[in-house]
Design brief:
Protein name: Hemerythrin (Two domain)
Oligomer: single chain
Strand content: under 5%
Organism: Arcobacter acticola
GO molecular function: metal ion binding; oxygen carrier activity
Family: Belongs to the hemerythrin family.
CATH topology of the largest domain: Four Helix Bundle (Hemerythrin (Met), subunit A)
Number of helices: 10
CATH class of the largest domain: Mainly Alpha
Keywords: Iron, Metal-binding, Oxygen transport, Transport
């Protein structure tokens, strides 16, 4: 339990770049941490009541935040508004279901369900979906300037971090200045290099997971395949896209697919390895 509370902290890489939305996300983390802090091992009715009160507060604030976020999406004419609203509804349904089952759940189950909601649903939603809103509303120059490697992306494994940095370095070359007549050819070469190196890196990472007997290796491999497929489809679109649109889409892929995978999934591998050194 204490480990869950310790892990449930706001990280700068969760920022989407909109101050109001980022502050509301941080507030949600604060309420969730407060809720987990009152979860103890004894099954006390008064404690259950306090937890229910806090989860209801979380539910209410999530609803307020989603309303504000939807208003912002309308203001910037975000093209995926309807899909995003549906995702919000699904998240609220998860919390509603949790609240309805509180009286029949043990405290450990409540802790696990709440932590899972924040870790697997909410953080994933921020990184994969909320970031898309601000990326869509950003200029190409802003996207380029923020698409490089940052130390906060480190998973604290020298070999994996080195390969992650190389992926970012290859991607950055796509934004380097070249003559207009050579740009299409150059970008295609760089994205092909990125695609090839990503497959190599994923192969190394999968071997590492096998060596340490990582229990979620099959799930992780599936994520690798999805990213490779996305990059492959992206490369196929190059002949039909203008360069500016292509560069913007590449920035989104880096920021959403690659960064999310590193900070949300690869870190799980390293964390598991450190907690289970005898499993090697």
């Amino acid at each position: 339990m204490d480990k869950n509370i310790e892990n449930l902290i706001w990280k700068s890489e969760y920022n989407i770049g909109n101050l109001k939305i980022d502050q509301e996300h941080q507030k949600l983390f604060s309420i969730a941490r407060k809720t987990l802090s009152v979860v103890k091992l004894n099954n006390d009715e008064q404690e259950i009541g306090k937890i229910k009160e806090l989860i209801t507060e979380l539910f209410t604030y999530v609803g307020t935040h989603f309303s504000n976020e939807q208003k912002y999406m309308k203001e910037v004419k975000y093209p995926e508004l309807e899909n995003h609203i549906l995702l919000h509804k699904n998240l609220l349904d998860v919390l509603t279901n949790l609240i309805s089952q509180l009286n029949t759940m043990e405290l450990k189950e409540i802790e696990k369900s709440l932590y899972s909601f924040i870790e697997e649903y909410f953080i994933r939603h921020i990184i994969l979906e909320d970031k898309k809103i601000n990326l869509w509303n950003c200029s190409l120059e802003d996207l380029k300037s923020h698409s490089g490697w940052k130390d906060i992306y480190s998973v604290n494994n020298e070999i994996i971090d080195k390969e992650h940095k190389e992926l970012f370095n290859i991607a950055q070359e796509a934004f380097a200045y070249v003559e207009e007549k050579d740009k299409t050819k150059k970008i295609k070469e760089i994205v092909t290099d990125l695609y090839d190196y990503m497959k190599t890196h994923f192969s190394h990472e999968e071997k590492f997971m096998q060596d340490i007997n990582y229990p979620k290796s099959e799930e992780h491999k599936k994520l690798h395949r999805e990213i490779i497929l996305k990059i492959n489809e992206f490369v196929k679109q190059l002949p039909t896209m203008n360069i500016s649109d292509f560069e913007k889409e590449l920035s989104k892929i880096i920021d959403i697919s690659l960064v999310h995978h590193i900070i949300q999934e690869d870190r799980k591998i390293i964390a598991w390895e450190r907690m289970n050194p005898h499993k090697k």
